[in-house]
Design a protein that fits this description.
- The structure holds 2 protein chains of 2 kinds.
- Chain A is 28% helix and 20% strand.
- Chain A is an alpha+beta fold.
- A 5-stranded antiparallel sheet of chain A has the order 4-5-8-6-7. Chain A has a 4-stranded antiparallel sheet with strand order 9-10-11-12, with helices on both faces. Chain A has a 3-stranded parallel sheet with strand order 1-3-2, covered by helices on one side.
- In chain A, α5 packs antiparallel against α8 and α10 runs antiparallel to α11.
- Chain B is α+β, with helices and mostly antiparallel strands.
- Chain B has 2 domains: 89 residues, Beta-grasp domain (Ubiquitin-like (UB roll), Roll); 65 residues, [2Fe-2S]-binding domain (DNA polymerase, domain 1, Orthogonal Bundle).
- Chain B has 6 helices and 5 strands; from the N terminus they run αββαβββαααα.
- In chain B, β1 and β2 form a beta hairpin.
- In chain B, α3 crosses α6.
- Chain B is elongated, with a radius of gyration of 17 Å.
- The chains are: A alpha+beta, B alpha+beta.
- Chains A and B meet through β1, α2 and α6 of A and β4, α4 and α5 of B.
């Protein structure tokens, strides 16, 4: 690990001013905020991340979960994943988020990892994590070893010829289905970014993963009020029963009235280069009679653009079955 | 099994962590509270809490398995919550209450979880055991359902390569007053 200067920010303004001196907030950032540290320190030990300066933001007052005036929920950037997962309002009104969080990592990591850190979680692509291998995300222009290599766990949606790395987060998938908004404070003021826009497709610049610029500090995320009568489920399929990243996952938030789907929000995990909101599946479901046949049509729509690699063709059918089963679970919920 | 070089490699002054003398970092002062005792230290900012505990404070109960938050052998409590100490920078934990396996019980005054691990034979080689016990002690205070499956889920961050899992679950369920599928002999 390269050495670094460690400072603790007294307040958000100080943290933002200090971090704004960096040339990028993306891969290669010289200055990083650190809160839970579960991704960052891991990658620093691998020399994938080599910041010169770490700004500890874990003691900033960003650790509250509060009701929003509009009836939604405000989630501080520093709220620990375990606190969010077990929060009574999240368990009752946003079950998909609680389930997603509890399906991720281990109890120890959930006690450390924060909301903002989870939003910025880095891919588990083995070539990204191995500095002796080419990787366009880690080292732009070096090539992608995954496309011709071990790509079983990697993405089938949103890929490019430069990168097929999967966004590994479970929380992000639930947040996408809940239409969360990410609130950022930076040197030019505050802005609010819908989660659908927050993460970028790799395209020709896989090293750019989010809209964040130097000095941008995520302060909180907000969830809209829970949709009336909606039922939600997070279903995660993986190689072992616990403490493993998703091969595929599905977050569904659906409202049924008189046997018809009146509203659906669908996101998939483990298959996309970003948390994969499926407007196609939602359109297929809306105003149709709920049932296995409809769910199969929605799943086909969700995966229509899938581009499997040499080892992950199974993900196409697995993702469809995952979404169908999640929809069944959600519509069977009492 | 752990790489015997891991400890030296991860140590702040170890061969892998420091390049040329021009890169030699400043050591920084930090006061840590470990098992109720305050320690004034001067450490390399890169020092993980795990390395600090083992190499600076000589509390070698916490173990280094993977050093990447994947095995749980390094589990300690910070402010009452279990965490992977290998993914903590020691210098960030001034003012926090850190409890290690050495602070949980003593040889003649075992924590109920420790006693239950003995009764249930919940270990073989013992390398993962301090982390298992730190996780199990924390689990007693966490929202956890009554079934063995609930315990297994919340203990999944602690790997045991000997495969003592059934007895570990039994040890924890015994302390919780729950029946385990695996009866303690």
């Amino acid at each position: 690990m390269k050495t670094f200067q460690l400072t603790r920010a007294a307040d958000s303004a100080e943290a933002i001013d200090a971090a704004a001196q960096a040339t990028t907030a993306q891969q290669g950032a010289e200055i990083r905020f650190i809160a839970g540290g579960t991704t960052l320190l891991d990658l620093m030990k691998l020399n994938v991340e080599q910041p010169e300066k770490l700004i500890d933001v874990s003691r900033l007052p960003l650790d509250k979960v509060e009701a929003s005036p509009d009836g939604g929920l405000t989630i501080g950037a520093g709220v620990r994943n375990s606190d969010l997962a077990y929060h009574p309002v999240v368990r009752e009104k946003y079950a998909v988020l609680s389930e997603a969080l509890l399906s991720g990592a281990s109890a120890q990591l959930r006690n450390m990892a924060t909301t903002a850190g989870n939003l910025l979680q880095r891919t588990r692509c083995m070539y990204f994590r191995a500095t002796e291998m080419p990787c366009n995300k880690r080292e732009p222009g070096s090539g992608c070893a995954a496309i011709t290599g071990a790509n079983r766990s990697l993405a089938i949606l949103g890929t490019s010829e430069h990168c097929i790395a999967t966004n590994p987060s479970d929380m992000n998938v639930a947040m996408a289905a809940l239409e969360a908004t990410i609130h950022v404070r930076g040197s030019k003021g505050e802005r609010s970014i819908p989660i659908a826009d927050f993460h970028l497709l790799p395209g020709k610049t896989p090293e750019r993963e989010t809209l964040l610029e130097p000095g941008d500090l995520i302060t909180h995320a907000t969830l809209p009020p829970p949709a009336s009568g909606a039922r939600s489920v997070y279903l995660k399929l993986r190689d072992r029963a616990s403490y493993e990243f998703a091969l595929v996952s599905a977050a569904v938030v659906v409202t049924i009235a008189d046997g018809k789907v009146t509203r659906a929000r669908i996101a998939l995990g483990g298959v996309g280069t970003k948390p994969w909101r499926s407007n196609e599946a939602e359109a297929a479901l809306t105003n149709q009679a709920a049932g296995e046949e409809l769910f199969r049509r929605a799943a086909e729509a969700a995966l229509r653009e899938a581009r499997p690699q040499s080892q992950n063709g199974f993900k196409v059918e697995l993702a469809k079955r995952c979404l169908i089963h999640a929809l069944k679970l959600a519509t069977q919920k009492a | 099994m752990p790489d015997p070089n891991e400890s030296a490699r991860g140590f702040a002054g170890g061969p892998d962590s420091v390049g040329t003398s021009a890169e030699m970092p400043d050591v920084i002062p930090v006061t840590l509270s470990v098992n109720g005792k305050k320690h004034d230290l001067r450490i390399d900012p890169r020092t993980s809490l795990l390395d600090c505990l083992r190499d600076h404070l000589h509390l070698t109960g916490s173990k280094k398995g993977c050093d990447h938050g994947q095995c749980g052998a390094c589990t300690v409590h910070i402010n009452g919550r279990r965490v992977n100490s290998c993914l903590c920078l020691a210098a960030r934990h001034e003012g926090d209450e850190i409890i290690t396996i050495e602070g949980v019980g003593q040889r003649d005054n075992l924590h109920p979880i420790q006693a239950s691990f003995v009764t249930c034979d919940a270990y073989q080689c013992g390398y993962c055991t301090p982390g298992q016990i730190m996780s199990a002690v924390a689990l007693l205070q966490e929202p956890c359902g009554p079934e063995d499956a609930d315990v297994k889920e919340l203990m999944s961050g602690n790997i045991c390569r000997c495969g003592a899992y059934p007895n570990i679950v039994a040890a924890i369920q015994t302390v919780r007053g729950k029946n385990s599928d695996k009866k303690a002999e």
